[in-house]
Amino acid sequence: MDIGILRRDGRTDPFFDGAAGGRLVIRRCAACDRWLAPDAGGCPDCGSDDLAWAEASGEAALVTWTVLHGRPADDGTVPPPVRLALVELAEGPWLHARLTDVDPERLREGLPLRAVFRHPPEGESYVLFEPR
Amino acid sequence: MTGSTAGAAIAGLGMTELGKVYGRSPRRLAADAVRRAVADAGLSLADLDGLLVSHGTSGSPGVELAAALGLRDLRLLTQMNAFGATAGAMVAYAAMSVLSGAASTVACVFADAPLRPRRSAGSAYQRDAAEWYGYGGMTAALGFRSVNAFYALAARRHMLRYGTTSEQLGAIAVSTRQWAARNPLAQMREPITLADHQNSRWVAEPLHLLDCCLVSNGAVAVVVTGADRARDLAQPPVHLWGWGQGHPGHRRERGSDFGLTTGAAVSGPIAMKMAGVSVDDIDVCQIYDCYTYTVLVSLEDYGFCPKGEGGPFVASGVLGPGGALPTNTGGGQLSGYYMWGMTPLSEAVIQARGHGGDRQVPRNDVILVSGNGGVLDHHSTLIVSPHPKGA
User: Fold this and answer.
1) Which pLDDT tens digit goes with each residue over B6-49?
2) Locate the Thiolase C-terminal domain: which residues (chain B) (predicted)?
3) Per 3-state DSSP, what percentage of chain B is helix, strand, and coil (rounded to 5)?
4) Equal CATH topology for B8-115 and B147-214+239-391
5) At B1, is the pLDDT very low, low, confident or very high (cuts 50, 70, 90)?
6) Which residues 6+ apart lie within 8 Å of B158 measured at CB?
């Protein structure tokens, strides 16, 4: 699956600043300290919408996964499958993520993962997760 | 104006041609379905004093449908959206309006036209772009471009927790196709075997192609009115005994029940209590089946089997023709037609009227209709019956 080019949207720029520097930057509620995903709009616990940005450890565990298969082309060729997952960050939030460098036989609930970053020649950096 | 004291009922059902239906806009399809529903009831458009509108991916129609139909002096008009739970929510709102006297005769319609000629059904529900914006855009770029991946994550989680298998999901695909084979309205009527299910290509593991619903163009409408009035109209009334909604708001964080439970665990008991029935009284189920897995987890949450035992339950053959709990008797969304929440609702109306032909179930006294929207985010439940409530 061709990723295409990633651009900033003005709302999640600190995440991309972090990714460019190899750091996983997510949201953290300024009022109650709860960690949240980078696209969280408010704190579901205390209701505050005052969310700071903070650097997470990058450590995670596998919750559930899928192997996404592209539709076969007219000539019968099939695009390479993509491994997608819900990962649970050590700080608690779940992220929808793509896995990389993972042996399919090793996939299991709780598999320890770490964030790794890719820096394409054009557009923003992005995060993947690999076994640790 | 006083409301109906005899309860509310569905008096009309209108369906356009469904499937690869091209050349008509969603608004035109919706208008056609409303006209058919009104005619089916033995009414005219001028009898409507309420219209509830919902749409699918096309983003149309909205409340302008009333003007397109030439409706005047409506007392109730709005667009509603809880995705796949909308049909049940619309019917409940229409019923409450009839009971309160806010309106007397309300049409509820859904229309969509995502299919285009020479374009795959799957691409109709998939985002694609050369450039993606922000964190959400990154998630889509990395592969979360259609709902398939999200439901696959949910199904896998159920498998990990409860040992549910792909073969058990396949039993739902097979039984649903058995029903579709008996329904002339169904898009896919060729019988399939469990082996066909297992051999169908992967879409998003653990979901095979035959775990996934169809994509359809078309529109479906119903007319809701007072039960006393419905009795004197053209069709046997389908009485609305109970309704409920459930929106669990699963959090995306440690401890979440995502994939394990749905809003049916809330909407079901509310609707059944209002109807004065228990799960043991349900004769037939029409359950939103965007994926086979959705049926399995919904059946658990309604209480037809204990949590986690949905796999063995569906594999026992209970859902198919001749089974103890006939489910998705028109072929559902997997094999029939994909009109979001109108798929289960329309088949419930047909079964309650006794108009099911080759697929008519022998016992139709209490029918459960289940809608599911988002990724297990929104549930609606209706309990309907050929009999007046409390009779």
Assistant:
1) 899 999 999 999 999 999 999 999 999 999 999 999 999 999 99
2) 253-385
3) 35, 20, 40
4) yes
5) low
6) B164, B259, B260, B293, B296, B297, B310
Q: Which residue in the set A84, A92, A124 is minimally distant from B144, CB to CB?
A: A84
User: What predicted TM-score, i.e. pTM, was given to this entire model?
Assistant: 0.97
How close, in Å, is residue A64 to chain B by CA atoms? 6
User: Cβ contacts of residue A109 below 8 Å, gap of 6+?
Assistant: A62, A63, A64, B160
**For residue B336, what pLDDT is reported?**
98
Cite the DSSP H helix spans in B80-226: 86-100, 134-141, 147-162, 166-180, 194-199
- The token pair at B36 is 């058919």
* Mean pLDDT, contiguous 10-residue spans, chain A (132 residues): 92 97 97 95 92 97 96 85 97 98 94 98 98 96
Residue ranges covered by each domain of chain B: 8-115, 147-214+239-391
The token duo for A10 is: 């003005």
Q: What is the pLDDT of residues A110-120, one digit of tens each?
A: 999 999 999 99
Cβ pair B252, B375 in contact under 8 A = no
Q: For the segment B292-340, what is each residue's pLDDT rounded down to a tens digit? A: 999 999 999 999 999 999 999 999 999 999 999 999 999 999 999 999 9
How confident is residue B363, by pLDDT bands cut at 50, 70 and 90?
Answer: very high
Contact B48, B71 (CB under 8 A): yes
- Tell me the domain boundaries of chain A: 13-131
Q: Distance (Å, rounded) from C-alpha A48 to C-alpha B365?
A: 49
The number of angstroms, rounded, from the C-alpha of B95 to the middle of its chain's C-alpha atoms is 18
Q: Which residues touch B195 (CB under 8 Å, ≥6 apart)?
A: none
Told to judge if B22 belongs to the known catalytic residues of this protein, a careful annotator would answer: no
- Residue B316 burial (CB < 10 Å; 0-12/13-18/19+)? middle
Say which residue the tokens 């770490």 belong to: A114
CA nearest to B207 within chain A: A66
CATH of domain B147-214+239-391: 3.40.47.10
Tokens at B348, concatenated: 């419930």
Tell me which chain B residues have a C-beta less than 8 angstroms from the C-beta of A97: 139, 142
CA-closest candidate to residue B48, choices B73, B17, B24, B27: B73
Contact A4 B129 (CB under 8 A): yes
What is the structure's pLDDT at B390?
83
CATH number corresponding to B8-115: 3.40.47.10
